[in-house]
């Protein structure tokens, strides 16, 4: 079993955009692609875990989500970076139909997406990191047994980092410090 780095998407990898569903609105946070490439070069799996309540609320669909992720893949590839797996939860208390679930096991802060990734890819959660810009990202990582890093991008500028193992200006700094720690 190997460790992984789990990443929140919006506000961690890309600039925060409410209900991002248009690939043309996707902008990677400066240094994020290079950070992912560093992890890739070390053979460390990079897994995106993202809440997508906009799908559950009917604001956009899975095809829109896939188009944004495809664009992200293209932008990352320009810097020899890639995401190894993506998990998304559309569940929300204000969701529609099957997505109308307030506390679904996959919706962060619950750890379901991380647990599923660990099972499907043989990942060692105790040696893994969860990086995000919100308290719910950190909580999901903790509940899964990971170490957690808060980035000050996205909503992270206003989040209390007291519960984080590491607080960094952005993903680039977080990855650098994770790798420097001998991991």
| CATH topological fold name of the domain at 7-102 | Rossmann fold
**Estimated helix fraction:** 25-40%
Main sheet strand line-up: 3-2-1-4-5-6
Report the sheet-strand fraction: 5-15%
Summed up, the helix count is 6
If classified by CATH, what would the architecture of the domain at 7-102 be? 3-Layer(aba) Sandwich
CATH superfamily of the domain at 7-102: HAD superfamily/HAD-like
Mean pLDDT: 97
N to C succession of SSEs: EHEHHEHEHEEH
The span between the termini is: 14 Å
Short descriptors:
6 helices; 14% strand; 33% helix; 6-stranded parallel sheet; globular; Rossmann fold; 183 residues
Brief overview:
The protein has 183 residues and is α/β, with parallel strands linked by helices.
What does this structure look like?
- The protein is of the alpha/beta class and 183 residues long.
- It has a domain of 96 residues: Rossmann fold, CATH 3.40.50.
- The protein is 33% helix and 14% strand.
- Strands 3-2-1-4-5-6 form a six-stranded parallel β-sheet, with helices on both faces.
- Strand 4, helix 5 and strand 5 form a beta-alpha-beta unit.
- Helix 1 packs parallel to helix 6.
- The chain starts with a strand and ends with a helix.
- The mean pLDDT is 97.
Write the layout of secondary structure elements.
Blueprint: E1 5-7, H1 32-41, E2 46-51, H2 53-56, H3 62-77, E3 85-89, H4 112-121, E4 129-132, H5 135-144, E5 147-151, E6 166-168, H6 171-180
Parallel strand pairs: 1-2, 1-4, 2-3, 4-5, 5-6
């Amino acid at each position: 079993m190997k460790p992984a780095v789990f990443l929140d998407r919006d506000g961690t990898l890309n600039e925060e955009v409410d209900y991002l569903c248009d690939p043309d609105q996707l902008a990677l946070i400066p240094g994020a692609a290079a950070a992912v490439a560093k992890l890739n070069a070390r053979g460390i799996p990079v897994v995106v875990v993202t809440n997508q309540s906009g799908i559950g609320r009917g604001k956009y669909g899975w095809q829109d989500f896939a188009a944004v992720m495809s664009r992200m893949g293209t932008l990352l590839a320009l810097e020899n970076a890639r995401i190894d797996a993506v998990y998304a939860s559309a569940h929300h208390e204000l969701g529609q139909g099957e997505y109308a679930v307030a506390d679904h096991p996959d919706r962060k802060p619950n750890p379901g997406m991380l647990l599923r990734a660990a099972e499907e890819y043989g990942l060692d959660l105790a040696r893994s990191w969860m990086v995000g810009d919100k308290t719910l990202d950190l909580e999901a990582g903790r509940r899964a047994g990971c170490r957690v890093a808060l980035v000050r991008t996205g909503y992270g500028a206003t989040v209390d980092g007291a519960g984080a193992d590491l607080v960094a200006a952005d993903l680039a700094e977080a990855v650098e410090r994770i790798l420097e720690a001998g991991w």
